[in-house]
Amino acid sequence: MSHFLVEVVIDAPGLFLDKRFDYLLPRALASNAKPGVRVVVPFRSAWKAGVIWRVRSEADVSSRVRPVASVVDVEPVLTEEQLRLAEWLCERYAATLPEALSAILPGAFRVTGGLQLQPARGVDVPDDVRASSTWQFVLQKKPDDRAVAKLDSNAKAQIEAWVELGYLERVLHVSEQVQARLQSFLSATKAPAELLQAAAARETRAPRQAALLRQLAVSGELTWARKEYPRTTVQPLVEAGLVRVDERPVSRFIWPDREERPAPALTVHQARATARLAQLIQAPGAHMAVVHGVTGSGKTEVYMRAIDEVVRQGRQAVLLVPEIALTPQMVGRFYSRFGDRIAVLHSALAQGERRDEWARILRGDASIVIGARSAVFAPVRNLGLVIVDEEHEPSYKQEDAPHYDAREIAVRRAETAGALVVFGSATPSLWAIRQVEDGRATLVSLPQRANGKPLPKVEIVDMREELRTGNKSLFSERLQQELEATVRSGLQAILFLNRRGYASSTLCRACGEGVQCPHCDIHLTVHRADGGMRLVCHYCGYEQSYSDCCPACGERALRAFGIGTEQIESAIATLWPDFRVLRMDVDTTRKKGAMQQIVADFEAGRADVLIGTQMIAKGLDFPRVRLVGVVAADTMLTLPDYRAHERTFQLLTQVAGRAGRADTDGVTLIQTYRPEHFAIQAAAAHDFVTFYREERNQRAFFTYPPFCELAVFLASHPAEHVARGAAMRFERELRRSGAIDYMTLLPASPSGIRRIDNLYRYQVVLKYGRWEDVGQDVTQSYRVVKERMNRLGGSCRLDVNAQRI
Ligand code: ADP
Ligand code: ZN
């Protein structure tokens, strides 16, 4: 007789990398056990949730193979395509299967609830078993796995024996949290005439039944409100074959009132773009397009038309946005166009809410999925279109393992499904333009604003001149004038600075030392707190109070250097005490909903000036903003990142694009000490092509992406020599492997910040052409080092296709 075995992926970090474990599948559980279904299995001395990877049958099974305890899901929670995608994630990003599966389905291994024992049905439990104290104990306990675990080992063995004998059954109790919330629907199974006839017959005998039948004769279906129609009313009608009861998952997402807004007539460029995308959607096979549309060109409308096209063909679409909290405006527009055909996936969803949305997508009830990075894994079965909006945003790259790039996943899924993938931006990444140049993607341009207005006038302000004329303020004369004029005429201004806090560091004028974090190799940042100034570490959260007394030499000569957003706020309060100011950065948006509140307040005109970091550059649409001021463009240029120029150009262009979006002409002022820099010049001139040519040449010359790919290995450990040793070992493993011929290796060295939170960090950077040539060897070397490091109490990570070093 053959036995069913299941290969199960279990999440037990640190113990092994990507092994799958065999379990015996009891026949009673076999019917639901399919790949993608979750199970609970005994693992070492605990119960663990796992995902079935494969089911196979074998004639001989070792007696050491343990049986599956319970099957959690009725239907697979991961589609076949998602399982294949998980496999690919492991190859592409040196990830483990549990990491990949958790990325695709957050909480996949968090099955709440536990095992319960109950007397087996249809089995006569002998009296001595029934009377046993252990048995009593088990039944008295609340149903969770610890009930068994807490018993002494004899009792545990006894229970195991009873389970073997079939007296007891293990039942999994899954708490409601992970089940989709179900709503009951009543629907008619007969034609209206027949229902009305049946209603007439019941009019006096059962008036409620008659009422329900009459209602269904008109509507065909209704949600079951139990107050109105109790079970005693419904059940006889079900038995008579007149009414059917269905349970369906419902969306818990609370929508604002839907206001129908008619689609606007397309501009010439929008019409052309829409037609081009429609062609690509209809053409067989997978395609890629880059939509390069200047800020305010109406890309959203083009996306909506493309989505409409796909949905009308009965296929599904996924729209990725950089940050869902920042796109209430966008979601609102989609809701008013498509209603509840959209599903929204975002990180603030509770587990249950996510499961509801997930279920609606799996069933095809929702045909349009909107969400941030991880929504690229949405379980759509019939994918026709993926759109990645603001494609250049760094948030599409996941910082933790698996270090995936949602843009690559989008391409991969589109290829598998024969779908179109669209990358949209006002400032396409070098990667995206490379796809166009290499003939892999079609370029679609929207060179003008949808409202017919010109792009905002951008002026560069040379801050060296200000110093010469004795202006020591954060604001140049020019910016002061424009701020005054803007606010006095009842319009709004945005001030942008890519640095939070009050000052970025301290320096003693007597000895030249600054105040360092005791746990990290980094200067403490100055923050303004209620009681005065504080020094804060942005890496580990360490805080201390600030005084001008230098901790190194004792002189009262400590000064704050490098401006942050808080300093702008106090400078405005000093110069214009009557201006109403909002600040949006990591510090003011920690609380849930705080970010949306700031956006809503500014949109409603409850403030004159919005100060913010890069958060304010992401696609917000404020019609009353006339002035945008970039307080210090240089802070971005000097970041130790090969993409510093690209980020500067993108942020300046995006921020400038917030000005003059409606009826007012916009003005943007860029303050800088390096007015001649090409990234600043090009952003001021709205000259993407010149920027692109220059940056492309530099990247090609120094061999940086997109002319190679980078992978960054990082080892961290409390002891510096262990971290360094791991990085050196990784380097040696690679030098011994065949992959060394296909890559350039930057030797083991301390990472940009040598110590964070008392952990020393050493890195090895790899440059290579194609991951296919080196991936296997790199992954193998990584695993060797990582397993060793896990035993030593440190950690390793490998960021493949790294976007920064
Ligand atoms: P982008 O994302 O390209 O910066 P949006 O999609 O936010 O631009 O559109 C900018 C503004 O133009 C929005 O207020 C939008 O409602 C408006 N708009 C878009 N298309 C049209 C159109 N065809 N006619 C009139 N207004 C439009
Ligand atoms: Zn620190």
UniProtKB/TrEMBL annotation:
Residues engaged in binding Zn(2+) 1: 508, 511, 550, 553
UniProt key word ATP-binding: yes
Record-level GO cellular component terms: primosome complex
Reactions accelerated catalytically: ATP + H2O = ADP + phosphate + H(+); Couples ATP hydrolysis with the unwinding of duplex DNA by translocating in the 3'-5' direction
Superkingdom of the source species: Bacteria
Cofactor(s) demanded: Zn(2+)
Helicase ATP-binding domain boundaries: 280-446
Cofactor binding comment, as recorded: Binds 2 zinc ions per subunit.
Annotated EC: 5.6.2.4
Pfam families in the record: DEAD, Helicase_C, PriA_3primeBD, PriA_C, Zn_ribbon_PriA
Record-listed Zn(2+) 2 binding positions: 517, 520, 537, 540
Domain Helicase C-terminal stretches: 541-696
One term of GO molecular function: ATP binding
Keyword Protein transport: no
BP term (GO), one: double-strand break repair
Entry keywords, A to Z: ATP-binding, DNA replication, DNA-binding, Helicase, Hydrolase, Isomerase, Metal-binding, Nucleotide-binding, Primosome, Zinc
Subunit structure, interactors included: Component of the replication restart primosome.
Protein family per UniProt: Belongs to the helicase family. PriA subfamily.
Classification via PANTHER family: PRIMOSOMAL PROTEIN N
Function: Initiates the restart of stalled replication forks, which reloads the replicative helicase on sites other than the origin of replication. Recognizes and binds to abandoned replication forks and remodels them to uncover a helicase loading site. Promotes assembly of the primosome at these replication forks.
Entry protein name: Replication restart protein PriA
Protein species of origin: Alicyclobacillus hesperidum
Taxonomic path: Bacteria, Bacillati, Bacillota, Bacilli, Bacillales
